[in-house]
Amino acid sequence: MKDSLYTLVYAIVLGTVCATLLTAAARFVEPYYKSNAEAERMRNILGVLDVPFDEDASSQELVAVFRKEVREETTGKLRKFLYVPSAGDGQAVAAAVPFEGQGLWGPVKGFLALEPDLRTIRGITFHEQEETPGLGGEIAADWFRGQFKGKRIVAEDGRAGIRIRVGAAGANEVDAITGATLTCQKVEAMINEAIDRIVEPKEASDDQ
Amino acid sequence: MTSSPPAMLPGGPGGVLDGKGKQTFLDGIWGNNPISIQVLGVCSALAVTARLANSLVMGVALIFVCVGSNLFVSLLRNVTPRRIRMIAEMAIIATFVILFDQFLKGFYWEMSRQLGPYVGLIITNCIVMGRAEAFALQNRPLVSIVDGVANGLGYAVVLAVIGFARELLGAGTVLGYTVLSTDWYTPCQLMILAPGAFIALGLLIAVYNGFKGPEPEETTP
């Protein structure tokens, strides 16, 4: 009986000490974590829009650049970030559309950047992904993302959407990653879901 | 597993490390290397070694966790009830792993994103638990720290070698810098993929054991 009580007390004390330590650590790290995530988001939008900014800029500087150069706009279901250079004539030179979905291991989030025509891809980023490092994780690598530049989001036959496949050839196709078939399929689906949102509202107005 | 010597009495012969600091250190890195001899912790050794940088950070993480858990398991070894000692070890190990994970998330955001779930999975790494059970429970804190450093290093070195080989052959780079230009070198993608990890680890263990010579026959005393 005495033994059981000692065991119980020991477990409670050890558990409390560990939990307290972890809570303190989490509380301490949280502001850094949050500002990392927010700066990362802005850095990604600025990067995908090709807005010039200092790579080593602090979070505050990034926020300032972001406020000055980028405008957020929502039409219907489509939320987009427009790059309107403060030194320019007020015309947007690029647009970024967020997309997200479930990857193989966890959520994948990113931005698709388009030319002002909203039909040609300018770039793409994945700012949140937990795909297998070295395999699915390669979606965040330059060689994979670079392929998207200049691709059309509407195929020659008029169907909207891009394709990620082996031996890409068409104007709306990019090469898949070997060993990451599932990640590629899931990423393709989430990008196309965003493309549907981009293409639909305009198509509707074209009919009139 | 090492055959654990009987627990030393406090203030026993051999100074603060009980006269076995050097042996403990060498065992962890070479004589009884956690990966190439005990073949523990191979899951993460296979998973994160596609890039050298990732391998190095995992190595550092394991050293940190091994040292921390060995130290505290050893400090508490005489007061921990035997019945719940494994759960207690898990709690200590998990605490150190999560601390390291939080640290990466706060200050090395990029690396934290690349390693993804594998840092958290150190909790289930057999090396950490193995050292706590096989060494820290029977030994004093300082020599347990030595054991933690040695085994962490043993793991880190193996990971670094595999990570180096896989990144070099699989992508032609070392730490992200191009070494084998793709102009004349076709990256062997197999090395980046999971089978490449198995092949690299298998070869490494074979070479290691080749150098070390055959295990002496076990003789019962």
Compose a concise summary of this entry:
The complex is a heterodimer of chains A (208) and B (221). Chain A is α+β, with helices and mostly antiparallel strands and 208 residues long. Chain A has helices at 2-48, 59-69, 142-146, 181-206; strands at residues 70-75, 78-83, 94-102, 107-114, 121-128, 163-165, 173-175.
Largest sheet report of chain B: 2 strands, antiparallel
* Largest interface by Cβ-Cβ < 8 Å: A-B, 31 and 36 residues
Shape of chain B: globular
SSE topology string of chain A: HHEEEEEHEEH
Task: Tell how many strands the DSSP assignment of chain A holds.
Answer: 7
What is the radius of gyration of chain A computed over CA atoms, rounded to a whole number of angstroms?
22 Å
- Global structural class of chain A: alpha+beta
**Which strand-content bin applies to the residues of chain B?**
under 5%
Task: Outline the structure in words.
- The complex is a heterodimer of chains A (208) and B (221).
- Chain A has 208 residues and is an alpha+beta fold.
- Chain A has a domain at 71-206.
- Helices cover 43% and strands 21% of the residues of chain A.
- Chain A is built from four helices and seven strands.
- In chain A, the strands form two sheets. A five-stranded antiparallel sheet of chain A has the order 1-2-3-4-5, sandwiched between helices. A two-stranded parallel sheet of chain A has the order 6-7.
- Chain A is globular.
- Chain B has 221 residues and is mainly α.
- Mean pLDDT of chain B is 86; it is low at 6-12.
- The longest helix of chain B has 31 residues, at 141-171.
- Chain B contains eight helices and two strands; from the N terminus they run H-H-H-H-H-H-H-E-E-H.
- Chain B has a domain at 38-163.
- The radius of gyration of chain B is 19 Å and the shape is globular.
- In chain B, strands 1-2 form a two-stranded antiparallel sheet.
- The chains are: A alpha+beta (208), B mainly alpha (221).
Topology:
The complex is a heterodimer of chains A (208) and B (221).
Chain A: H1 2-48, H2 59-69, E1 70-75, E2 78-83, E3 94-102, E4 107-114, E5 121-128, H3 142-146, E6 163-165, E7 173-175, H4 181-206
Parallel strand pairs in A: 6-7
Antiparallel strand pairs in A: 1-2, 2-3, 3-4, 4-5
Chain B: H1 21-31, H2 42-47, H3 52-75, H4 85-107, H5 109-115, H6 126-136, H7 141-171, E1 173-174, E2 177-178, H8 194-212
Antiparallel strand pairs in B: 1-2
Helix pairs in contact in B: 1-7, 3-4, 3-6, 3-7, 4-5, 4-6, 6-7, 7-8
